[in-house]
């Protein structure tokens, strides 16, 4: 069983485009869609509505920066401070080109910071490439388990 991709995105248009792009990349991973930072923390900690979710961490977290309830930087901080979650790859996927957001994301330990392209085809390619890299090509850190490997 493949680990899921966790997509945390509140913008309906960006969400739809990201799902289309991941589908086009033909990844076999399930995509868990969450629309705010508070719910993302519940999912990651397996609490509240997600207390019965399958155990394990996502293959990658695609995280928007500007989210309702809890922003993406706070979610990232929580992931990096958690002994259970800290090695989970996090890609900040945002429309923010503000240097302070970029710097703060890297200070908190983001694996990649990707500014969403405005052009539809560029957006599809960027998301597809991200999904393939983090879910298939990237070697997980020592101690984490990948239960299925494509050959």
- H/E series, N to C? EHEHEHEHEH
Class from secondary-structure proportions: alpha/beta
- The strands making up the biggest β-sheet line up spatially as 2-1-3-4-5
Estimated share of beta-strand residues: 5-15%
Question: Based on CA inertia axes, which overall geometry fits?
Answer: globular
Give the proportion of residues in helices.
25-40%
- Mean pLDDT equals 84
Produce the secondary structure layout.
Elements: E1 5-8, H1 12-24, E2 31-34, H2 37-45, E3 60-63, H3 72-81, E4 90-94, H4 99-107, E5 112-115, H5 120-137
Parallel strand pairs: 1-2, 1-3, 3-4, 4-5
Helix pairs in contact: 1-5, 2-3
Write a concise keyword list for the protein shown above.
5 strands, disordered C terminus, Rossmann fold, 39% helix, globular, alpha/beta, 151 residues, five-stranded parallel beta sheet
Short description:
With 151 residues, this protein is of the alpha/beta class. Helices cover 39% and strands 14% of the residues. The chain has a single domain (5-137), classed as Response regulator (Rossmann fold, 3-Layer(aba) Sandwich), CATH 3.40.50.2300.
């Amino acid at each position: 069983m493949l680990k899921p991709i966790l997509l945390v995105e509140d913008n309906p248009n960006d969400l739809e485009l990201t799902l289309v792009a991941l589908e086009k990349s033909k990844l076999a991973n399930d995509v868990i869609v969450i629309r705010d930072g508070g719910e993302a923390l519940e999912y990651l900690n397996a609490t509240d509505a997600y207390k019965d979710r399958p155990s394990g961490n996502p293959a990658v977290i695609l995280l928007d920066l500007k989210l309702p309830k809890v922003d993406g930087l706070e979610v990232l901080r929580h992931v990096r401070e958690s002994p259970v979650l800290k090695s989970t790859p996090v890609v900040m996927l945002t429309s923010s080109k503000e240097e302070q957001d970029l710097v703060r994301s890297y200070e908190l330990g983001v694996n990649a910071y990707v500014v969403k392209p405005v052009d539809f085809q560029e957006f599809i390619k960027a998301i597809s490439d991200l999904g393939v890299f983090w879910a298939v090509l990237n070697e997980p850190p020592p101690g984490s388990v990948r239960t299925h490997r494509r050959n």
